[in-house]
Amino acid sequence: MLILFRIIHVLAGVFWVGTAVFTAAFLIPTVRAVGPAGGPVMQQLAQVRKLPTYLMAAMFLTLLSGIGLYSKASGGFSNAWMQSGPGMTFGLGGALALIASVVGLVVVMPTTKRAGALAAAIQTGGKPPSPGQVAEMQRLQARAGRGSALGATLLVLATTAMAVGRYIP
Questions:
Q1: To bridge 103 with a disulfide, which of 23, 133, 134, 151 should be the other Cys (CB 3.0-4.6 Å)?
Q2: Alpha-carbon distance 143 to 37, whole Å?
Q3: Rounded Cα–Cα distance for residues 42 and 91 (Å)
Q4: Cα separation of 43 and 95, whole Å?
Q5: Rounded CA gap, 137 and 131, in Å?
Q6: Average of pLDDT values for 109-132?
Q7: Within 10 A of 34 (CB to CB), how many other CB atoms are there?
Q8: Is the pLDDT of residue 98 over 90?
Q9: Vertex 123, ends 117 and 125: CA angle to 5°?
Q10: What is the pTM of this model?
Q11: What is the distance between the alpha carbons of residues 86 and 106, in angstroms, rounded to a whole number?
């Protein structure tokens, strides 16, 4: 069971962190740079390819398997182990991942949903977006960009903690 938890944790975590970093560093800046033409790309990713669903699944699998691994490593959440170098480092990594998940669920997902709805409304309108729609899209894209950058940074820090946790005295 421990090996299965570890495989799930690593594979789902790689997908979650990799996608978060790609989205924050490349996808969102590109979509913002191309303006309204980026709307169909985001719609394809979200509605057809179901990227948010896969990200959420990877997030939950990573968090749940991580809690299972932490419980096993700590002997059922023993204070002595949790106060050791590895225990505190893995705990910090887990806390950072939990915070990143909250940022994703509370900031990024609702913001990108609103941006997608606005893009769909603009596209079905059959005319160029109004100045108000352009301003709202820019505001939503900026918020999604900031949230994605924060989430990706937290996940990189969490991954770093997981990578070095066993070596901390």
A1: 151
A2: 19
A3: 34
A4: 32
A5: 10
A6: 87
A7: 11
A8: yes
A9: 100
A10: 0.91
A11: 30
Mean pLDDT of the 123-139 span: 88
- Read off the amino acid at residue 138: Q
pLDDT recorded at residue 66:
97
Q: What is the DSSP string of the chain?
A: -HHHHHHHHHHHHHHHHHHHHHIIIIIHHHHHHHGGGGHHHHHIIIIIS-HHHHHHHHHHHHHHHHHHHHHHHTTTT-HHHHTSHHHHHHHHHHHHHHHHHHHIIIIIHHHHHHHHHHHHHHHHHTSPPPHHHHHHHHHHHHHHHHHHHHHHHHHHHHHHHHHHGGG--
Q: Residue with structure tokens 């918020």?
A: 143
Tokens read off for 76:
């059922």
**CA-based radius of gyration for the chain:** 19
Q: Where are the domains of the chain?
A: 2-167
pLDDT digits (tens, 9 = 90+) for 20-40: 999 999 999 998 898 778 878
Tokens of 159: 């991954």
What CA dihedral angle connects 6, 12, 18 and 19, to 10 degrees?
-170
C-alpha dihedral, 50 to 54 to 60 to 63, nearest 10°: -140
